[in-house]
Design goal:
heterodimer; A: 117 residues; mainly beta; 7-stranded mixed beta sheet; 4-stranded antiparallel beta sheet; 11 strands; 54% strand; B: 110 residues; 6-stranded mixed beta sheet; globular
């Protein structure tokens, strides 16, 4: 099956610093990658959709300048949380859809838990 | 009104029981319906995928979609303790944006 990895799995940082999270599709090329945020006992909230080589499309209410997304290749997308604050602490999950196939199945990464002190 | 409504539970059942998980939705344009399982502190994994209305069976899992009622279900037969997880329904209009339910936490007691 299609595998998506995320790195790091857990990060703790000080307030004001920037954190970069990587999302990689390991055995397939991803047409599109998605970034979600999940709070405890809450649903996954889509933050942005990124296509390789083009600017990400952000959901309403998501700050583009705070959550920088770069989809540099068909197997890698990065999310940078700039000037992180405690309220940015959350579980960030990426997913990817394949360039092949006719379904819109999203393959999810294992998630990155960010804690901002 | 949320686009997708799902009872958060928790739902506790004895091992071997049949589990029924449900979601309702308001967007009649949804065509793709999915169920994901998420273990604690892990990413979701796809369990079932259905296009439009109907039933789909895969082992102990059966997914049902009733578009006329805007209602989808996931049934788990002969539930096992390893089925204990949060189950998220998800649906989308097209290839792209997927809308998730809040998830139902299931605990199967040995």
């Amino acid at each position: 099956g299609a595998v998506v990895s995320q790195h790091p799995s857990r990060v703790i940082c000080k307030s004001g610093t920037s954190v970069k999270i990587e999302c990689r599709s390991l055995d397939f090329q991803a047409t599109t990658m998605f970034w979600y945020r999940q709070f405890p006992k809450k649903s996954l909230m889509l933050m942005a959709t990124s296509n390789e080589g083009s600017k990400a499309t952000y959901e309403q209410g998501v700050e583009k300048d705070k959550f920088l997304i770069n989809h540099a290749s068909l197997t890698l997308s990065t999310l940078t949380v700039t000037s992180a604050h405690p309220e940015d602490s959350s579980f960030y999950i990426c997913s990817a859809t394949s360039t092949s196939g006719s379904t819109n199945e999203q393959f999810f990464g294992p998630g990155t838990r960010l804690t901002v002190l | 009104q949320k686009e997708v409504e799902q009872d958060p539970g928790p739902l506790s059942v004895p091992e071997g029981a049949i589990v029924s998980l449900n979601c309702t939705y308001s967007n009649s344009a949804f065509q793709y319906f999915m169920w994901y399982r998420q273990y604690s502190r892990k990413g979701p994994e796809l369990l079932m995928y259905t296009y439009s209305s109907g039933n789909k069976e895969d082992g102990r899992f059966t997914a049902q979609v009733d578009k006329s009622s805007k209602y989808i279900s996931l049934f788990i037969r002969d539930s096992q303790p390893s089925d204990s997880a949060t189950y998220l329904c998800a649906m989308s209009e097209s290839y792209q944006k997927v809308t998730f339910g809040t998830g139902t936490k299931l605990q199967v007691i040995p």
